[in-house]
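Lay summary

Proteins are chains of building blocks that fold into shapes. Our project writes down both the chain and a compact code for its shape. Here are two examples, one after the other.
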Amino acid sequence: MRENTFRFKTFEIRQERSAMKVGTDGVLLGAWAAGSKVTDGKMRIMDIGSGTGLIAMMMAERFPKAIIVGVEADHGAAEESAINVAMSAFADRIKICENRFEEYGGEEKYDVVVCNPPYFKDSLKCPDKGRLMARHGEDFDVAELCRFARRHLKEDGVFAMIFPYDREDDVIRAADRLVLQRRLRVSGTKDGKIRRTLFEFGLKVENCVEESEYVEKERGVRSEWYQKLTDRFYL
């Protein structure tokens, strides 16, 4: 196995050229997004900022009849994710497009739009330019992302994102006319601070499902919840 390759049960992720590597955030979102959509039917899914292609392939595995478009602005990441997809069992169902989402054309509507966005805008800057662009998102506009998702959602579609917990209010404000339908707050350990919030928005007003979970029951040991959520992926 290559040093810069991450192996899951049914696919591998090369991550030599992509600024952002496989991490818990992406795995959480890929395993959790659209969990309310229990269907064996065909769906259309868009992964914005697809990076290595991780979330696109996780969604392809979870929804075996879904057609997925990954939109990635960085040239190296787009090329690498296309290679990852081509080497997987999902190659005929995933297309990687090298575009900024703001410039992505077409009026196609999607059942699911998912995004692990660059959200560390105020954190200590990273000296690597590609990594800085991927994580800090200095030109990234959450409100514009939400408007884009709203335009491309089917009437019963959902838009899922993950953000730091302390950005919750910012995300809710940016969502504007999108309606919060699911929210999951995640801490590292049972008694630890909440670190991440996963959001799922839609166009319809529904009772919002609120959940809180944690990733590890002790250092290096996955919690029962996280083990169950990710069991089909991790070796």
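And here is the second example, written the same way.
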Amino acid sequence: MMKRLLLAMVGCLWLAIPLSAQSNKLIRELEGKRGVLQKQIAETESLLKSAKKDVGSQLNSLAALTGQIEERRRYIQTISDDMKAVERELVSLERQLSELQQELGEKKERYEASVKYLHKNKSIEEKLMFIFSAKTLSQTYRRMRYVREYAAYQRMQGEEILKKQEQIRAKKAERIQVRKAKEGLLKECEAEKAKLEAQEKEQRTLVASLQKKQKSLQSEINKKRREAARLNARIDQLIAEEIENARKRAEAEARKNASRSKGAKSPAKTKPVDAYTLNKDDRELSGSFASNRGRLPVPVTGPYIITSHYGEYTVKGLRNVKLDNKGIDIQGKPGARARAVFDGKVAAVFQLDGLFNVLIRHGSYISVYCNLSSTMVKAGDTVKVRQEIGTIFSDGTDDGRTVLHFQLRREKEKLNPEPWLNR
């Protein structure tokens, strides 16, 4: 009877607590990160539409399709990683729930014992007799305090039970939410795998078509190599000039500092002029740029696909097709603009085959933006990170294909830009 009374009391109090919607923090974070990738993939799918049959167009379509496949594989891997994280969260929730339920059981037992004790000594007369049967005044005071403290202890026990029940309810709701998230991830993963399979089939079809045009294909590859060689030769020349200009600035600063030291009759020794390659401002900018490796923005506005990676590589399925990229090629939507990846100063703007190319110096680092139909900056301009510097050329003869060729150098050293970008 007493146990039923206890459960009824606790049950009534339980119903009085409002049921608030739970939201698991991990699920929110994973959904936010995945949502960015999902949007990126959905938007870049429109970049793959091409019905042209000539070799150049097909080769470009193959590059775009390959880039999209890589993005989808990356997204599937993200889903897989998220599922593992969600599974770990479920295990953790089950453990927490078990611990809470055990604590609740212990608290209920203690509360039931206190209720039984009070039930046996419930009348006012019994409490008064207990207090006034004390033999001394101090004992009377202690007994009064004991009665008050025991009543407060009983209330606290009841409140702790309610709090623990609320924690259990919230944890169960969270567990349901995480389980639903896991089910959703499984479905999404299967759907993405189906799309990937369809794209890989399309890729194989394109490769098969190009294999039949080996002579035209080789001619197109040779044409691209010649164009790339001309562009890189011009970039190398301008970078060499910029390095020399930076050295001269550093020399001038060194002479100025040496002159000041001499005028002040300072005993401090100065380094020889030829030891300086950067002045103070360039050194600070270089350090700041280097510390942002992996956090630089992608130099294209809007959705994009990386269609050609850095370095030498072969095209899968095509024999004798070896490409060498000194940077990366990023395809965006028609109207996309190139933007600066970091604060810096425009070192050069030059034209080649009617298209603009921009070099921006960031201390000893130089970023290069090629294949622009127009520019918004000129040599000597100071630019800020994410500042738009020009519109990327859209090829009207190839379904508006819009590709930025992006390079990154540290003085004359060519760097792979991808590890520097925040993707």
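What can we say about the second shape? Residues 1-23, 267-276 have pLDDT under 50 and may be disordered.
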